[in-house]
Design brief:
Pfam families: DUF3152. This protein is of the alpha/beta class. It is built from six helices and nine strands; from the N terminus they run H-H-E-E-E-E-E-H-E-E-H-E-E-H-H. It has a domain of 169 residues: Collagenase (Catalytic Domain) (3-Layer(aba) Sandwich). 30% of the residues are buried.
């Protein structure tokens, strides 16, 4: 009889293997737990790094150099600067104004009154010459009208000639004389110009004509087109007479005469009085001298 050997394990062996398996399982759990903890730590660390980078990125976007403005403020600052007029600096009195003083303006722009508010700053010179009028050495002058002003330079020259040759004008002082020319050399230039161009040229010498009044600067006698065409309320019925006042007043400045005021109620207003600012009791008058050759004047004012 054949006896087969028994292949099973003894009870002690089975207990030892069971203990080994359970120990291995416990070790696996511990290792798994450790790996999970380490993995969690790595994940938490990664999330913290991402958060740190995001915060740094926000800081980079929000940070600006200390001297920079936020875009909205910078835009507001620019708008304010755009509406803030630059300070005007007066040139030296000896510096002549250039012929095309306002050449940056392309064309005349009419106003509601029909008087162009501004023009190109270029001028037409009246042709021809006049005979000398008055005593002494003649001052040579040109007459010009701005392009687009609607004024004929030739017609304006005739009026200026008549005014300066009148016996009640500056020649009555016994030593002033005038002669119109069409080219340099000229001692002064009578320019009839749009209000904007008058403001430009007069403003170079520190005078604010405000689009309304005339001025005499350097060798330029600037006549505001609005005054030439419309006079003032006092002279609205006689624009021709007011033109004589404008020429006599501004040429008077060129000759060295300053402003005066009304000498007394009911008396003729001096030509060197700023009549556009009020008559102050005087009656209208446009000539420096009366028909008897007496200077019409009054107390000096700034």
């Amino acid at each position: 009889m054949i006896v087969t050997a028994y292949q099973g394990k003894s009870p002690g062996s089975r207990r030892r293997r069971s203990r080994s398996v359970h120990a291995a399982a416990r070790r696996g759990k511990r290792r798994g737990s450790t790996r999970g903890k380490k993995h969690g730590k790595r994940l938490a660390g990664g999330l913290a790094a991402v958060a740190a980078l995001a915060a740094a990125g926000c800081a980079v976007v929000a940070w600006q150099p200390s001297g920079a403005e936020p875009p909205a403020a910078a835009g507001q600052s620019g708008a304010r600067a755009e509406h803030t007029p630059p300070a005007r600096r007066s040139p030296e009195p000896s510096a002549p104004a250039p012929s095309a003083s306002a050449g940056h303006r392309a064309s005349a722009r009419p106003s509601e009154s029909g008087i162009p508010e501004t023009g190109p700053g270029t001028f037409v010179t009246a042709p021809g010459e006049s005979a000398k009028t008055g005593s002494g050495k003649a001052l040579r002058y040109r007459v010009e009208a701005e392009h687009g002003s609607g004024v004929s330079a030739a017609d304006a020259a005739e009026e200026v000639e008549r005014i300066l040759a009148d016996p009640r004008g500056w020649t009555a002082d016994g030593h002033s004389a005038f002669r119109r020319v069409a080219a340099d050399p000229a001692d002064f230039v009578v320019r009839i110009a749009t209000p904007g161009t008058v403001d430009d040229i007069c403003g170079r010498y520190g005078l604010d004509t405000g689009g309304e009044v005339n001025c005499s600067v350097d060798r330029n006698v600037m006549v505001n087109l609005r005054r030439w065409e419309q006079a003032t309320p006092v002279y609205a019925h006689d624009v021709t007479a007011y033109r004589a006042l404008v020429i006599n007043h501004e040429v008077g400045h060129f000759l060295g005469h300053g402003h005066v005021t009304c000498p007394g109620r009911g008396k003729p207003a001096p030509a060197m009085m700023q009549q556009i600012k009020g008559m102050h009791g005087c009656v209208p008058n446009v000539w420096p001298y009366d028909p008897e050759g007496h200077l019409i004047t009054g107390p000096s004012v700034p």
